[in-house]
Amino acid sequence: MRKMQVQGVHHITLTGADRQSSIDFWEGVLGMPFVFDQPNLDNPDEGHLYFDPGDGRLITVFTNETRKRVHNRTPMDPGCVHHIAFNVSQATFRQTVERLNERGIGHSGPKDRGFMDSIYFKDPLGLLIELASYRFEPPAGSSHAAVLLEAHRIRVERGDYNIAEIHLADAIERIVERSTGTLSDSRGAADPY
């Protein structure tokens, strides 16, 4: 038996309300370009809208002009989607409260997650949306996931409860030491003063 190795998220498809509400939210609030449009090939009564969240992957939305917007929270039963998180820069993150407030969109306020900052709010159909901003950049040739894995290992070694910025900084240092050679006799910390 062998695995079917995935290489990233291809797309996520959500059930939306009407076409214009979907465009207004995904492009008009979150800034995702509306890049492709066709019928839902499995249901001729629905449209299928495609949005680019910024990394070239896709968020797609099934629309139906008879579905209306609701503001209740989507189900959180086992097997249901709890929320979807989208990456934003720190510059954008610092503007989220103001920009959500000017639209009258209720939100959680900024949340400190140790390795990232987050804010939560609902889409027009009650799906919880998170805007998240990492507090670090991975070393060249590495990824956020690789840094988080190394930071997790450091956190566990030290018996700490959750990942904090010190774990991230130490993880980045370890990754750089493993991936980049040096002509120095020692890679240890030094005091040149």
Describe this structure in words.
Residues 8-134 form the VOC domain. This is VOC family protein. There is one protein chain. With 193 residues, the chain is an alpha/beta fold. The chain has 3 domains: 12-68, 2,3-Dihydroxybiphenyl 1,2-Dioxygenase, domain 1 (Roll); 70-135, 2,3-Dihydroxybiphenyl 1,2-Dioxygenase, domain 1 (Roll), CATH 3.10.180; 144-179, no CATH class. 26% of the residues lie in helices and 25% in strands. The protein has 5 helices and 8 strands; from the N terminus they run βαββββααβββαα. The strands form 2 sheets. Strands 1-4-3-2 form a 4-stranded mixed sheet, covered by helices on one side. α4 crosses α5 (165-179). The longest helix has 15 residues, at 144-158. It is elongated and about 70 Å long.
